[in-house]
Amino acid sequence: MTRSTMRATTVRVAYPDLVGFTTAVFTGHGMPGPRAADAAGALCHGDLTGTRSHGLANLTRLYLPLFAESRVDPRAELEVLRDLGACVVLDAHRALGLWAAGAAMDLAVYRARMHGVGLVSVRNATHIGCAGYHAARAVEHGLVGLIASNCGGQRIARPPGGRLPMLGTNPLSVAVPVPAGPPFVLDMSTTVVPTGRVREAARAGREVPLGWLTDEAGFPVTDPTRFDQGEAHLRWLGGTPENGEYKGFGLGLMVEVLSALLSGAAFGPDRDALLGDGRPAGRDDDIGLFLLAISPELLRPGGGFARDAGVLFGTLADCPSTKDGQPVRYPGWPEAERAELYRRQGVPLSAELYDELRAVAERTGVAAPEAVA
Ligand SMILES: NC(=O)c1ccc[n+]([C@@H]2O[C@H](COP(=O)([O-])OP(=O)(O)OC[C@H]3O[C@@H](n4cnc5c(N)ncnc54)[C@H](O)[C@@H]3O)[C@@H](O)[C@H]2O)c1
Q1: To which protein family does this belong (predicted)?
Q2: Which of 64, 69, 125, 162 could in theory staple to 92 by disulfide, Cβ–Cβ 3.0 to 4.6 A?
Q3: What would the mean pLDDT of 257-265 be, rounded to a whole number?
């Protein structure tokens, strides 16, 4: 291949352009402007932080199909079903989860400022993208944030020892402000990885590490394409029972209880689950969310939370490293570092994803995001 015909495998786009493009796509699908901008921020957060499994790769695979199939209502208002002051239950009426989760966290923050804690429980939501983006909204106000989301009626992961999938990949995130450092943002699926990471590897033609997938007989699978062929199954965090699989499974169940049983949303293991053929099944509609904001200032007698958080996280980051010389980092740090770099240099997108976005632009009459030289 000559130099002139060689194609870059990565294209960089200025972050504001990427958000502007995504906002325009969402407004083109009927979302009011400010709401679309919020949702675009949540979706672009994936690419901005290097969490590509939950970035714009999901625009054509997940979100636009939700609009096309009327499984999302772009203008739905969040309805208050119960208001106990510190606790509120909302019906999201199929509003786009990328926006609704942030709006629910803002409400939790507002209540936490009055009561010390704000708990918002949501039913009938749709896909929220990166859980950490929404948890970190609380940090912007100096509060601790927590979010858990189930996957509605979608069944992907099998209980340990089980032959049928029962639960989703059930993400969980906790975010904490850290003075003089990036916030602590634990943001994770409760399965060993989310399905997006398996599909990302399949698209890139890469094998996945041992421990992500297993075949019907329990042997490890490294070919990610076998997942969507129904020949490989996603493991819970921990992988095997000896390595803590029941802890991952237990966390997944905890998310299901907090997000779906408390709110009255759909959940995976209903009786239909027992009629399955072993492949992932069910739809990620009527998702349940659990959002908690905690005000350390109101809660802790005598104050000192921020000072101690600085000591806790600062000391961890100063821990001498092992021989490979990699500095010790806590969750949230790598994403914050990437976000800072990509805001300066442009957000890297694979050439395939960039082409996909240009095709969306052409189809929807929106200006395509310009590649940075
Ligand atoms: N909406 C949904 O239904 C859904 C389902 C599953 C996952 N997700 C999202 O998928 C995304 C990816 O999840 P994941 O489980 O692949 O996350 P991950 O394995 O990439 O990261 C998990 C956590 O480990 C931390 N971490 C990773 N490497 C680190 C390092 N070198 N130093 C310090 N900390 C490090 C990260 O900061 C993060 O908090 C998350 O945003 C999650 O919310 C969403």
Answers
A1: Belongs to the LDH2/MDH2 oxidoreductase family.
A2: 125
A3: 98
